Amino acid sequence: MSVRLPLIDTNVTSVTIVENFTLVNNKNNQKDNERRTALSGPAPKGDPGTAQVFGEWPAEHPLPLPEWGERSAPVLRIPDGRSFRRLEEDVEAALGKVLATNNYNTIGNYIALYKGFKASKCLNLFDYFQMYTPPITPAHHTCVGLALELWRNIAKNEPAMGEYFYLVSCEESIGAFEEYAGLQKEINETKNILEKEHVLLAMRFDLGGRDGIMLCDPGYHVGRAIIAMKDELAPHTGWFIQSKEPHLEKQFNYEYSKTNDDFVQWSERVTRNKAMVEEVHSLVYIRKPYLTAVDVTERRNLVYSFRSLLSRDRSGTLIAGIFFKVTEHNDEFLLFYQDEGKKRIKLNFSEFANLHHINEQIKPIIEKCNDQLNFAPGQLLSTLYVLYGIANDKRYVQQLLDINTCINDISED
């Protein structure tokens, strides 16, 4: 079942379906939208999907500009704690299912972009990047696809409840976060410097006259519904341990910004060897539904210099996967899997240049990781072979890194 965002401006001229959700083109940006919509084809009738829009894309800007709904998100009135706990349990059941049955995958969209670019015969990656519509499918689930999948699951179980959920955008790792929140009284005035690299699913509620918000973050493997109350009283979640390993612990906390309650401040505290080494702050804009999760956030993710493919259990604990940093000369990636505990091994893409000559000691490790990623037989090997090809296409990698640098430079300003 698809979920229709009830707050979107209906001043539209065409739509594009991408795996059960809709991209809606604004009349104000028709010329630019026609250029980018051409790759996607017409929308099937009778399936509006989840409303998303193409943002305006100024010349020389590395990303489209983010867009939000015109009105504030709706508020669900909840009469008592028992009703709230029942809702929370239902949402967490849907969240656990999404985590366990969908990999977090920023490698799938990385490969799809490369293959599309090569097939297009285009010489300039940025030109193609502007024309490209990022796919949202189970093979490409980043935070955007996972949030949309969770939304569909909730709406399938409780159709009326789906109308209260909406996507929210997040600006990560902000240094002067209080100053940032203070400047964002009207977010549209500063959207040309926003990166909006992360997306969550949210629902505003009123619990017996007390304001709160429920946040779900399958993109960061959070296996619980996060509750932020304005008064910070129960059922406020507060600080919790998100992940814990022998020498590394991560704690998260979500609270309304003291500077501007249109934002939730997300704090991450990292402890290594029992000594806190850093605390990072991000801001989630919660006032209005975020309408450019695909066009801005998913597109931004295409050129990140860090890629990962991860399977999780229902609690969000990582089971198996690979990750690597994209650089001009990097050939190395890290693979992990479960075998009487978590096992890690560093490998090189060059070891997979010829799939008929794979080191016999590596094969069983790849097969175990493949199975724990819920892949078809041989799928991980094929993926590593493609990644070897991309890593050795130096001109392509440099163009991708140049786009990433441009985006970083704008957001740092």
Structure, explained:
- With 413 residues, this protein is α+β, with helices and mostly antiparallel strands.
- It has 2 domains: 68-98 and 107-300, no CATH class; 317-411, no CATH class.
- The chain has 11 helices and 17 strands.
- Strands 4, 6, 7, 8, 9, 10, 11, 12 and 13 form a 9-stranded mixed sheet that branches. The protein has a 5-stranded antiparallel sheet with strand order 5-14-15-16-17. A 3-stranded mixed sheet has the order 1-2-3, covered by helices on one side.
- A hairpin with a 2-residue loop joins strand 10 (240-245) and strand 11 (248-256).
- The radius of gyration is 21 Å and the shape is globular.
- The two termini are 41 Å apart.
- 38% of the residues are buried.
- Residues 1-49 have low confidence and may be disordered.
What is the CA-atom radius of gyration, in angstroms? 21 Å
Determine the N-to-C terminus distance. 41 Å
Provide the residue-averaged pLDDT: 86
Number of domains: 2
Q: What structural class do you assign from the helix and strand content?
A: alpha+beta
Strand content: 25-35%
**Count of discrete alpha- or pi-helical segments spanning 4 or more residues:** 11
Q: What is the string of SSEs from the N terminus onward?
A: EEHEEHEHHHHEHEEEEEEEHEEEEHHH
Number of β-strand runs: 17
Contiguous uncertain segments of 5+ residues: 1-49
Outline type: globular
By oligomeric state, this entry counts as single chain
Largest sheet: number of strands, sense, barrel closure: 9 strands, mixed
Helix content: 25-40%
